[in-house]
Amino acid sequence: MRGAEVNVAIAVWRFLRSGLRSFLFVGLLVAAVVDCWMRRPRVGAEGAVWIHGWCRRIVRVLGFECMVEGAVPSGGAVVSNHLSYLDILLYSSVQPFVMVAKKEVRGWPLLGWLTAQAGTVYVERGGGPKTYPAVNAAMAEAYRSGLPVLFFPEGTTTDGAEVLPFRRGLFHSVLNGGVALRVAALRYSLDPHVVNAGATVGEDVCWWGDMEFGSHMFKFLGLRGLRAKIRFGEEIVERGDRFVLSETAQGVVAEMYEGLGLEAGANVGWEHDSELVGAL
């Protein structure tokens, strides 16, 4: 009975934590909208720099410890694995990026409007060749912003079991513009010393498949001991065509991601950026 009472207490505290963080999260989004209306940053690079500051605040409210390794890119294109809607917030908290996101993100309440202010390029999944000219033009404009352009070539989010093959479409813009391409890997973990009532990274942090956004977000906000590790890699120099470029980049990202997993499992060298820490 005592064990059952403990489990009930943990569930209650997690529910209360979810409620508090939900309130703070929505409050920050509303405050960001008001701030944007007052400051009127221009859509694009100026908007990306502006939203960077708000993402740092949001990451603290979410309770993440975030560790960053490698030289943070200052321009060109960056490709990463894709695990959740959280990825954009984490990357934007580290450095202003012009993001590439699926078209559906534009319709999300508040979040969609905010991402638009940062000059996000919205891509229609499965749009086919008819969408290429518009996407390539939007990507070319994003590269001219002077900020690094981040996209997720897996084309979907996953549970983190593996890095899927990269879709080749957006690599057209990298080759056509002679844009330098760098790689990055992102991995989430939960502090093993914190009780989260059976929560797992694959089901409770990653967002994939047909998971419902609202319920996932609420449950996620109740977690403790959240960790994220981002590793930036070197430039990909093998770029004969989009096939070579995409496959080479995928191989490097997969290797980096696996390395982050081995380190997380061994609990090796965990340190955090104190400015990105949040613990509620």
Automatic annotation (TrEMBL):
- A Gene Ontology biological process annotation? phosphatidic acid biosynthetic process
GO terms assigned for molecular function: 1-acylglycerol-3-phosphate O-acyltransferase activity
SUPFAM superfamilies per the record? Glycerol-3-phosphate (1)-acyltransferase
Keywords from the UniProt entry: Acyltransferase, Lipid biosynthesis, Lipid metabolism, Transferase
Q: What is its EC number?
A: 2.3.1.51
**SMART domains xrefs:** PlsC
Keyword Acyltransferase on entry: yes
- Where the record annotates domain Phospholipid/glycerol acyltransferase, the positions are 76-189
Top-level EC class = transferase
Q: In which pathway does it act?
A: Lipid metabolism
Query: What name does UniProt use for this protein?
Result: 1-acyl-sn-glycerol-3-phosphate acyltransferase
Identify the species of origin.
Tunturiibacter empetritectus
List the lineage, top down: Bacteria, Pseudomonadati, Acidobacteriota, Terriglobia, Terriglobales
